[in-house]
## 1
Amino acid sequence: MPYCDEDIIEVIITQQQIAARIAQLAQQIAADYRDKHLVLIGVLTGSFVFLSDLMRQLDRPCEVDFLDASSYGNGTVSRGEVGITRDLKLSLTGKDVLVIEDIVDSGRTVSELVRLLQGHQPASVKVCTLLDKPARREMPVELSYIGFVIPGQFVVGYGLDYAQCFRNLPFVAVLDEDAVVPKPRTSE
């Protein structure tokens, strides 16, 4: 599906706003984990852009690993089930873990990931998300670092996708679901 300007309703977070906020988050994280063995766990696929920019701003060493988890599939609404398709390669025992998410919506994925990671015996597990969408929360979650709080609309860009498209946009925008989501036919 090619990207079209008419698919985007509104840019809600610019590239410059994202860069400035990531610099602030990196300073806070570096200070909070100054004397700790930090492991960043990226949640694929959406977090890879955010994780990459964030870790380059950290002025301290850290390890990086990835999990692949999803509750959206190719839709615009969470399916309510969390699927883990790629597990960790690093040992987390005794290390401080920071889960890096692109967006926290229903809370189901983050809740399940934190539960799973606690089974690896880390010293701590916290969550950092670029976007928080509390209006859609179904499950309580504790978020230690939040880039931006956004409304309940479906967004794309900066790693976030719709059916694997729009990840390359350098900003976060509201997607016109009517333009990209086929509507069911009605019988006449």
Note: Residues 182-188 have pLDDT under 50 and may be disordered.
## 2
Amino acid sequence: MVELRRRYGAAPWHLLLLLGCFAVAGWIALRLAGEPTAGRMLLWFLGAVVVHDLVLFPAYALVDRALRATLARGRPSTGGPAARRSRRPSALNHVRVPALAAGLVFLVYLPGVLGLGDGTYSAATGLQPRPLLARWLALTGVLFAASAAVYVLRWLRQPGRGAGPAAGGPGPR
């Protein structure tokens, strides 16, 4: 086992999991091989990979870099005594998580949010399309508000705030 781990570079369970993933992918490929729309599915998949890797990833990496730079301004460096006194929780993930969730919901419901495909929706369901843009905006607002509330709670519970020994107040008697 030690030799396998040294040669492979990871634990044996990792190799088994990877082989299982390849088996599932192969099974799916065999199931789609006889499908008449397999070529179109493959084209859409390859297009999604290209659009993600060449457009979306650089875009959200740039936005994340700008967000990190903006949030890093005004924070003391990690080493000095000022940094130890000011242990504010980072707001970075409190912006990233709701933005990611809102972005994923937007991508999943993209035609409905943008009002595209209303005729197709009506023909397939017999229902009138609902205004998804307002609902998506409301959901995005709720996600960011909940994240901001969690951030405020974390900020209020940090050491050095409130009464008690950590804040220089009276200790237990």
Note: The radius of gyration is 25 Å.
## 3
Amino acid sequence: MKRKFWNWIRNETDGERTLVLNGEISDETWYGDEVTPALFRKELDAGTGDITVWINSPGGDVFAAAQIYNMLMEYRGDVTVKVDALAASAASVIAMAGTEVLMSPVGMMMIHNPMTIAIGDSKEMQRAGEMLDEVKESIMNAYEIKTGMGRARISHLMDAESWFNAGKAVELGFADGVLHGEGTEDSVRGTEPEGVMFSRMAVTNSLLSKLVPKETEKRVPVEQLEKRLGLLRH
């Protein structure tokens, strides 16, 4: 039996069920595997009533995330998603299935373009690129449904690999509220802490601008460049 990346917890007092997604989505293959998705659905449908989904994941298999997203969207009860620390990449897609999405005040969400590994000639590379474009369009559907944001803006955010803190996730519509402590939540827009967003593209460009100064600026000594490049490796 393959190691599961999810776990169901049932509160015996009130019967409430909690799904915990912790770690990489699908440590082993899910796409093309009939057992793992069927097991997840069986466990999801093993009970009734509303469920809570806690997410702390860097992402993983986009096809696994897509199936989990669809299963949660089709679930008859309400689905409250709570982002514990991180909902990145494919995990952010699953988060979009929440009837209500709540972020920890110290949590982060990240969206970016899908990636793959391809081997072959130029035709194979072209097909791989076309496949990634289609996958991106499908991911954007989940973000668009949840946020109501235009697809062009969503695409730009994905291109830049965008990271949101709790306030920014709410501001952009990726989340509905911020968790403020045990048993307390604030799901009213406009009352959250100031939103902050940054992108890998912007950070990279900023670092490069410091490493490679403009012609009019003083050149950086070789030893300083080596030191800065050493910092980039960590």
Note: Residues 6-195 form a domain with the 2-enoyl-CoA Hydratase; Chain A, domain 1 fold (CATH 3.90.226.10).
